[in-house]
């Protein structure tokens, strides 16, 4: 009789595994372009339609798949200061070829796929890699703008791709491009399933490092929006590490179009933990010797993410 395989395929570790969540409201300080499709010579940005009580509204959108791609590139292009190469070069892991090895700090959390046995050049050496699937344990959500403002359309000129050219035979090609308007707020969420703290370090590094690079072409970049809450001007940011999900999830309904309503909803869910309204920016709930839920808010959450990001640098990049 054939034995049925029930194991997940993930290696056992001596490090405890947890779930981790990041909740944030991002703000773009300038126009933002994230290409979606081209229609009648206009490069369109991605939008979504939302049904409200008496209307259908259109909103700009930083889709979770696009954010995931920017984060993954942050890791692939992370600098290794001592060798002068990038992390993806060292690992032989990039886009579209993902190495899918369980010990790859990128693929372990973002996932990877090799469809058939292949040979890969890694730093000048041939390496055989078998067909492999690694399911990502990091998922991205949110990204629908709070304000309902349609994208604007601008005239642009595509210049010849050479940096310098003596003959002036090639003229710039005019084209139109849509942009998300400045100051749009985008609530976003990252969730990690059953990861170790070293695995989450890559996620924290990628989340923070990708902020300056969200968007396609130029201009690009966002930051974590700040508002006064818990008596301090601080980022709208929540980080959870847990065995049991004991906090309300600060997720903003895409049907909300007012900034003030969205911030009140975010703060009221962020400060609700297991039936209590919390005033501390770090809250912990224990059962026996185990910490079952920890939530960091605002500046504390940012410092926690920065600690994890620094851990990624010291263990993987240095
Ligand atoms: Zn990899």
Give structural notes.
The chain is α+β, with helices and mostly antiparallel strands. It has a domain at 17-63 and 139-157 and 172-317. 21% of the residues lie in helices and 36% in strands. It contains 6 helices and 23 strands. Strands 1, 12, 15, 16, 19, 22 and 23 form a 7-stranded antiparallel beta sheet that branches. Strands 2-3-14-13 form a 4-stranded mixed beta sheet, with no helix packed on it. Helix 1 crosses helix 4 and helix 4 packs across helix 6 (298-317). It is globular and about 75 Å long. The model has no long low-confidence stretch (mean pLDDT 94). Residues 91, 93, 98-99, 101, 104, 106-107, 112 line the site of zinc ion. Zinc ion (ZN) is lined by residues 91, 93, 98-99, 101, 104, 106-107, 112.
Summarize the structure.
This protein has helices at residues 64-76, 87-91, 107-110, 197-210, 259-270, 298-317, and strands spanning 17-27, 35-39, 42-45, 47-51, 56-60, 79-80, 85-86, 112-114, 118-122, 125-129, 132-134, 138-142, 152-158, 173-179, 185-196, 223-224, 226-229, 232-235, 237-242, 272-273, 276-277, 282-287, 290-297. The protein is α+β, with helices and mostly antiparallel strands and 318 residues long.
Strand content: 35-45%
Q: What is the gyration radius calculated from CA atoms?
A: 22 Å
Q: What is the oligomer described by this structure?
A: single chain
Total of DSSP H or I helical runs spanning 4+ residues: 6
The helix content, as a percent range, equals 10-25%
The main sheet comes to: 7 strands, antiparallel
What is the 3D form? globular
- SSE run: EEEEEHEEHHEEEEEEEEHEEEEHEEEEH
How many beta-strand runs? 23
Distance between the termini: 50 Å
Which structural class do you get from the secondary structure elements?
alpha+beta
User: Uncertain runs with pLDDT below 50, 5 residues or more?
Assistant: none
Ions, cofactors and other bound molecules: zinc ion
Look at the structure and give the mean pLDDT. 94
């Amino acid at each position: 009789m054939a034995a049925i395989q029930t194991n997940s395929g993930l290696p056992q570790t001596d490090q405890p595994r947890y779930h981790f969540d990041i909740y944030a409201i991002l703000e773009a300080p300038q126009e933002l372009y994230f290409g979606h499709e081209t229609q009648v010579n206009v490069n369109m940005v991605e939008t979504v339609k939302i049904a409200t009580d008496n209307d259908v509204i259109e909103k700009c959108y930083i889709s979770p798949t696009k954010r995931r791609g920017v984060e993954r590139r942050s890791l692939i292009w992370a600098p290794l200061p001592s060798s002068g190469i990038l992390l993806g070069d060292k690992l032989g892991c990039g886009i579209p070829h993902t190495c899918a090895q369980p010990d790859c700090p990128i693929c372990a959390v973002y996932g990877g796929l090799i469809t058939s046995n292949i040979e890969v050049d890694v730093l000048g050496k041939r390496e055989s890699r078998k067909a492999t699937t690694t399911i990502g344990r990091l998922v991205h959500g949110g990204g629908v703008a709070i304000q309902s403002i349609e994208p604007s359309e601008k005239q642009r000129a595509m210049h010849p791709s050479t940096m310098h050219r003596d003959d002036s035979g090639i003229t710039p090609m005019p084209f139109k491009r849509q942009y998300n308007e400045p100051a749009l707020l985008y609530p976003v969420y990252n969730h990690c399933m059953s990861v170790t703290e070293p695995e989450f370090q890559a996620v924290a590094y990628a989340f923070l490092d990708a902020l300056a690079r969200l968007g396609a072409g130029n201009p690009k970049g966002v930051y974590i929006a700040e508002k006064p809450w818990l008596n301090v001007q601080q980022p709208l940011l929540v980080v959870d590490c847990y065995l049991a999900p004991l906090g309300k999830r600060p997720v903003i309904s895409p049907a909300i179009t007012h900034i003030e309503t969205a911030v009140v909803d975010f703060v009221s869910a962020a400060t609700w933990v297991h039936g209590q309204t919390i005033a501390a920016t770090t809250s912990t709930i224990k059962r026996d010797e185990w910490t079952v839920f920890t939530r960091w808010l605002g500046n504390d959450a940012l410092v926690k993410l920065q600690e994890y990001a620094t851990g990624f640098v010291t263990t993987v990049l240095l």
